[in-house]
Design goal:
Structural class: mainly alpha
Number of strands: 0
Radius of gyration: 13 Å
Shape: globular
Order of helices and strands: HHHHHHH
Helix content: 55-70%
């Protein structure tokens, strides 16, 4: 559930505030389309977390440099969720 304060912040950040997420998922070899079909609520939550992130410049730099897979766990608030997805997929 999104608080009114978070909702205001999400609106202020605009429609492209979570553009990094699909790029990161692709860099990690996670199929976003499959994830959308199988766990849409998880994707929505990850989008919200991404949109609220305060590490955009670091993330963008890693995505451009192709180093996101090696470094995202250092700063990405979605890292625990992504790790959980990877562990579930490995089963």
């Amino acid at each position: 559930e999104v608080s009114p304060g978070d909702l205001d912040e999400l609106v202020r950040r605009g429609p492209h505030a979570a553009d990094e997420l699909p790029v990161l998922l692709k860099a990690l070899g996670i199929d976003e389309a499959v994830l959308e079909r199988t766990q849409p609520l998880v994707v929505r939550d990850m989008e919200r977390v991404c949109a609220m992130c305060r590490h955009k410049s670091q993330c963008d730099g890693d995505l451009v440099a192709g180093t996101a897979a090696a470094h995202y766990q250092d700063y990405c608030a979605n890292a625990p969720t992504i790790d959980g997805l990877e562990k579930a997929a490995a089963r």
